[in-house]
Design brief:
Length: 685
């Protein structure tokens, strides 16, 4: 038999997609043809197609996202059918004339084992667990069961006729084989490897598929004009669906929609399984050999060899099942049957925690689907570190980023996750809640008396404060800033404001600023203190505090001045003694006083006590604190000479005192001495 005998309309692949529940092609209302295919479109996830060729002795590996053939795996013989396991790790290719099943490692794109068969294989399928391959061997008129662990044929089930297609129910317990001569659907119990039923078909059967519920089998009876439906409970035909020249079939994961590839009509029939009626037709797809659906159910793929000899490139078409849009997924030489492995695009459903500092370093857990094999996790486009993923979750350490809400995206072999509200992470700028308190001492305070303001700045968290600055501004009654100091840092005075640079303030720490003030006028003096830092303050209201101080008129001290005199006569050293007395008549204690005495013309003062000085005919004496009702005296002498005759008047006057003197009437007094000779003088006052 020459190889050309096998180049008939595709019938193979309708099998295994049952276990993987390949999805829908398109669901529309009305029967409508679709325009010619457009350019390549990116599909959800990343799907790899393993494609057999009419003329080539190889399996083509096609990236349907880019349209590129990434590898061509040589095999012995002419490849009739191909199936990839659910993990995407192993491909099984049935080859005619070599009469084998070639086992291909997808990691290396190389044949790792060759399993000999009894005859010419035309179709194969793989159970969901990937533990067994079922091969329709047309020349041996049997189904051969291959153990994938040992890569050996472990059972052979005789099935008369020329085989076309094979499929498994979802449990893998039942296999269905289509044959012509006779036109039949043969039912095999796989655990016992025995035929349990044979269902006659109305025309030549080709492709076959079992719905996800395992309750119905659909057979592409392309030798006629229908798709034939068989009830698996009774193994009887229950419906014939008008779909001319259908040779391949596939069903959606939910079982609601059936797809039939028609090479004669160059398109795909869409059938609602609830009513077993055709609802749409996607045309313009050429001489379709196979139809397959990716595991996401979003894209259907068909093959059009164009030229069976392969001298003209053929095509793999992709059909968006939501929009019925057809695109050219790839150009392949003479494509026939294909098997799909789809790595779904990752999807993020939550990020925990969903906020952290701008410095990064937060360990987050990203949950979702299809996350295994992640090659990158980004936060606002910046790669995370310490990435570790399972299928449903990843952990990662956030990178540094400016304060903002950003999208977290994960890139896997299936693509990059689409952004949405569930993947958002908020970078929070450092915050330092600076709380300010201020107190005064004393209050009220007398005009001219010292006043101290003490400001305390406390970092109440949640982060350390840096670049901390405290300012204190005076307003109201006039005053003079005497000094300013801080417990850390430095202060500068630019009246009426004091600015202190405090620097770093750890979370929970405090710093104080002390400002000394001399009130210059009565009234109300207000000090307002404010603290700021480089970090944001979440509660700016407590960063400012004010303290008002009442400045009062100082209490009065009435100083009364008394001057007395006493002569001291004699031939040797005659002199007059004058005593200056400052009496505090109240009501307040006297802090200090100054009394100045004027001397008689030409007189000089001697024997001055402490606190008294003389200059230009005067004696000035200062007094310290004098209690209310008390007095203090200072005495000096005026020497007498032979010519010191006449009146000697000395007048003492208060020239200064604190607090203020409310009564000027008693601020001066005079004592007078009358000198007749140095041996005779009298004094009064």
């Amino acid at each position: 038999m020459s190889p050309t005998i096998l180049l008939r309309p595709s019938r193979a692949r309708w099998r295994r997609r049952v276990a993987t529940a390949a999805a829908s092609l398109l669901i529309t209302t009305g029967l409508a043809a679709v325009a010619a295919p457009s350019a390549l479109a990116v599909q959800p996830g990343r799907t790899t197609a393993y494609v057999t060729n009419f003329a080539g002795q190889a399996v083509s590996v096609v990236d349907t996202t880019t349209g590129a053939t990434t590898a061509s795996v040589p095999v012995s013989g002419y490849v009739q059918d191909v199936a990839v396991n659910a993990a995407g790790s192993t491909v099984y290719a049935a080859t005619a004339y070599a009469n084998t099943v070639a086992v291909i490692d997808t990691a290396t794109d190389a044949v790792t084992a060759t399993i000999p068969l009894a005859g010419i294989p035309v179709a194969l399928t793989l159970n969901a667990a990937g533990t067994a391959v079922y091969v329709a061997d047309t020349s041996a008129h049997a189904v051969e069961i291959v153990d994938t662990a040992t890569n050996t044929v472990t059972a052979t089930v005789p099935v008369p006729g020329n085989h076309e297609g094979i499929a498994l129910d979802p449990s893998g317990a039942t296999a269905y084989v289509t044959t012509f001569a006779p036109n039949a659907l043969t039912v095999i119990d796989t655990p016992t490897a025995t035929v349990t039923a044979t269902v006659p078909m109305p025309a030549t059967p080709f492709g076959v598929v079992v719905n996800p519920a395992g309750s119905a089998v659909y057979v592409a009876t392309g030798g006629g004009a229908t798709i034939t439906k068989v009830d698996t409970a009774t193994n009887t035909v229950t419906s014939s669906i008008a779909a001319a020249n259908t040779t391949s079939v596939a069903i959606s994961p939910d079982g609601a929609t059936l797809y039939g590839g028609s090479p004669g009509n160059h398109g795909v029939y869409v059938v609602a399984t609830a009513t077993d009626t055709v609802t749409a037709f996607v045309g313009g797809l050429g001489n379709i050999q196979d139809v397959q659906i990716d595991s996401t159910g979003t894209t259907a793929y068909t093959t059009d060899p164009v030229s069976p000899s392969g001298d003209v490139p053929g095509f793999i078409y992709a059909i968006d099942t939501a929009t019925n849009t057809v695109t050219t997924a790839a150009g392949v030489s003479g494509p026939r049957n294909l098997s799909l492995h789809t790595v779904p695009a990752p999807e993020i459903t939550a990020v925990t925690p969903n906020s952290g500092p701008v410095a990064g370093g937060t360990t987050v857990t990203v949950t979702g689907t299809g996350l295994n094999g992640a090659t990158a996790i980004t936060f606002g486009g910046t790669p995370a570190t310490n990435v570790s993923c399972t299928v449903t979750s990843c952990t990662a350490t956030t990178p540094a980023h400016a304060a903002n809400t950003v999208d977290v995206q994960i890139t896997t072999p299936g693509g990059t996750s689409v952004t949405g509200s569930a993947d958002q992470f908020t970078y929070v700028a450092p915050t330092a809640d600076l709380a300010v308190t201020i107190s005064d001492s004393a209050d009220p305070v007398s005009q001219g008396a010292p006043l101290t303001y003490t400001t305390t700045v406390t970092d109440q968290g949640q982060d350390d404060a840096t670049g901390t600055t405290a300012t204190l501004t005076l307003s109201g009654a006039a005053s003079t800033i005497a000094s300013a100091a801080a417990s850390q840092g430095t202060c500068a005075v630019a009246a009426p404001t004091v600015t202190c640079t405090l620097g770093a303030l750890p979370d929970g720490a405090s710093a104080t600023v002390t400002v000394s003030v001399i009130p210059a006028a009565t009234g109300t003096l207000t000090a307002t203190a404010t603290a700021t830092a480089t970090e944001d303050d979440p509660d700016p209201a407590n960063s400012t505090a004010s303290q008002s101080t009442t400045v009062i008129t100082p209490p009065a001290s009435d100083v009364a001045v008394d001057v007395t005199a006493q002569p001291h006569l004699g031939i040797l050293v005659p002199y007059l003694t004058y005593t200056l007395t400052a009496r505090n008549t109240g009501p307040a204690p006297l802090a200090s006083a100054t009394v100045t005495a004027t001397l008689p013309p030409g007189a000089t003062a001697t024997n001055l006590p402490a606190g008294c000085t003389t200059a230009s005919g005067t004696v000035t004496c200062t007094y310290g604190a004098i209690a209310d009702g008390a007095s203090a005296s200072k005495t000096f002498r005026i020497p007498l000479h032979l010519l010191s005759l006449g009146f000697a008047h000395v007048t003492g006057t208060r020239t200064a005192s604190a607090p203020a003197d409310p009564n000027a009437a008693n601020d001066s007094d005079t004592a007078t001495c009358t000198v007749v000779t140095i041996l005779l003088a009298t004094c009064s006052g």
